[in-house]
Design brief:
By secondary structure, the chain is mainly α. The chain has a domain of 90 residues: Rna Polymerase Sigma Factor, Chain: A. Helix content is 73%, strand content 0%. It has eight helices and no strands. It is globular.
Length: 176
């Protein structure tokens, strides 16, 4: 396995293969976040593509004070917030959900109920202020530790825990 710092140094010097390896190491996790935030696969793919373009353009300024994932995640969030400001509305997609059932797998109704619940939660999270959305996504979707999230958002852990508590209460109120 190649050292992340070495890949970044090579990519900064124009090595497209090294940049491709960086993208490959980030793509799955960032796509999952983008899909969660956007709710639609094509929009998530577009956001991810814009994110990697932003990474390519911003890589010369990357100082290494955080990990490359953290840096790229921040680019993704900034682009997502920019898109939301342009839209001024949330698009809800219920296109997925009905699936063919096979023995031992959930029925279409069970699958739809789970999908419907996930969609309701995603829409509820989308209604939260951006800061609370980020905390919920980082903690429960990305499963980052309090320490990692606090470092990423540049707040102390106590502040983070307080914000997470508020975010969960707001989400609970939205969902009820």
């Amino acid at each position: 396995m190649v050292d992340e710092g070495l890949l970044i140094a090579k990519a900064k010097n124009g090595d497209l293969e090294a940049f491709g390896q960086i993208i490959a190491s980030l793509e799955t996790r960032l796509y999952r976040v983008a899909l969660f935030l956007c709710g639609e696969r094509e929009e998530a793919k577009d956001l991810l593509q814009e994110t990697f373009l932003g990474l390519h353009q911003g890589l010369p300024r990357f100082a290494g004070k955080s990990g490359i994932y953290t840096y790229t995640y921040r680019i993704l969030l900034n682009l997502h917030h920019k898109r939301l400001r342009k839209k001024r509305r949330i698009t809800v997609s219920l296109t997925e959900g009905l699936k063919i059932t096979y023995p031992g797998l959930p029925s279409a109704a069970e699958s739809f109920a789970k999908t419907e619940l996930r969609e309701k939660i995603r829409v509820g999270i989308a209604k939260l202020p951006a800061l609370f959305q980020e905390i919920i996504v980082l903690r429960y979707l990305e499963e980052l530790s309090y320490h990692e999230i606090a470092e990423m958002l540049k707040v102390n852990e106590g502040t983070l825990k307080s914000r997470l508590f508020k975010a969960k209460n707001l989400l609970r109120n939205i969902l009820s």
